[in-house]
Every structure is written in C-alpha cells, then in structure tokens.
Amino acid sequence: MTNPDTLRYIEVRDGDHTVLAAEVTASEEAGGTARASLRAASGHVIPGRRADLIDAVMDLPEVQASARLEAAVPRGDGESLERLHERTEDTVTRPAGSTTLVDADIPASGQPRAGRHPGGRTSGS
After folding, report:
1. Domain range holding 94?
2. Which residues sit opposite 104 in a β-bridge?
3. Nearest-10 crossing angle of helices 49-58, 78-87
4. Full-model pTM
5. What are the Cα distances from residue 75, in Å, to 64, 92, 94, 102, 116?
C-alpha cells in the first residue's frame, strides 16, 4: 500500500554541514493538514537561518495548499516559533518534553497575517 502523503526534506547548510533540517508531509488533497518536524544540529546557528527554514517550509506548494499545520520544534527555538506565529493564524503551542508542538491554521494563499510583510516584518519596521 502506498502512502498518500507527500514527504519533503529541507536542509539549511553552513558550508558542508547541515545545521537545520525539516521533514514535511502534506496530504495530496488540498485543505488537509501539513506536518513538519524541525531539527537543529548542536552549536551556534547564524541568526535568521531558523526563520529561513520556516519560510522554506511554509512556501512549499503542498503546505500552502493545506488548511492546517502541525509542527514539532526544538524547545527553546524562539526564532522558529516567532516566524511560525508570523506565518500562521490561531497558533497554539504546548511543550512536550524537549519539543514544542505547534497547531495552527495556514492563511489562504500562504499570505502573512494582516499587518505583516513577507519576510516577517511588522508594519512600520
């Protein structure tokens, strides 16, 4: 039996090393739920790179075609959580061990919430 979900793997690299990664699955039918699991390598990650990973996940066509997002983010990853709040609606987070679970609605056409510009800056930034 085949899996009806599409699996995508995204990496953010620093030279030859993967510093961030995400596995994303989304239902092939529009309006379903996309699921993302984010991971970070130990050590320093250049500021802004975590937000870049979230943007890459949110910009996937299959994620944009989804209505909901369920994500697992490493606990303490404030940059990723902030960007998820900027790119989603009705976002709820809850701790689960070393992970923060995120449940959110994906705005139609992947547009940022009202008052936000693409790239996550608020109006007037």
Report:
1. 5-110
2. 69
3. 40
4. 0.81
5. 25, 14, 10, 11, 25
92, β-bridge pairs: 103
Element containing residue 53 per DSSP (H, E): helix 49-58
Is 80 exceeded by the pLDDT of residue 73?
yes
CA 117 to each of CA 11, 68, 122: distance values in angstroms, whole numbers, following the listed order = 24, 21, 6
Between vectors from CA 56 to CA 105 and to CA 88, what angle results, nearest 5°? 20
Sheet with 33-40, strands from edge to edge, namely 5-14, 17-27, 33-40, 68-74, 99-105, 89-96
- The domain total for the chain is 1
Between CA 97 and CA 46 the distance in angstroms is 25
Strand partners, 33: 68
Residue whose entry in the numeric block shows the structure tokens 């940022």: 112
Structure tokens at 86: 């900027």
Q: State the pLDDT confidence band at 62, using cuts at 50, 70 and 90.
A: very high
Q: CATH number of the domain at 86, please.
A: 3.40.630.30
